[in-house]
Amino acid sequence: METFDPKVLRKLFRMSPRTKRHYDETRAALRAERVATPPGPGNLRDLKGQADREAFQKTYDALTSEPSLAEDAKLYDHLFTKAHGNVAVRTGA
Q1: Could you tell me the maximum CA-CA distance found in the chain, to the nearest angstrom?
Q2: 3-state secondary structure of 67
Q3: Alpha helices in the chain (DSSP H)
Q4: Residue 85 exposure: Cα atoms within 13 Å on the Cβ side
Q5: Contacts for 33 with CB less than 8 Å, ≥ 6 apart
Q6: Are the C-beta atoms of residues 49 and 38 closer than 8 Å to each other?
Q7: Could you report the per-residue pLDDT of 22-50, keeping only the tens digit for each?
């Protein structure tokens, strides 16, 4: 079950510079790509917003799959459980 929550991810950014750096790098790459080759009509602010949302999702996906972020994934699970109770904690499988 999906446990993606941007608010919890933002809390994790304050606690983990490694995850924050991963997000910043992903966001910068996506923003540059969107601005250089826009996928369709839209103003620059919309394109950057789309890139930011996609960067959140990619950072979450990296947390769930990359072994180098395993400690941060455990911290994310703890923060998620604290915020939402023990409803659907993600498994590492």
Answers
A1: 43
A2: helix
A3: 6-15, 17-36, 44-65, 70-84
A4: 1
A5: 51
A6: no
A7: 999 999 999 998 888 877 776 888 888 88
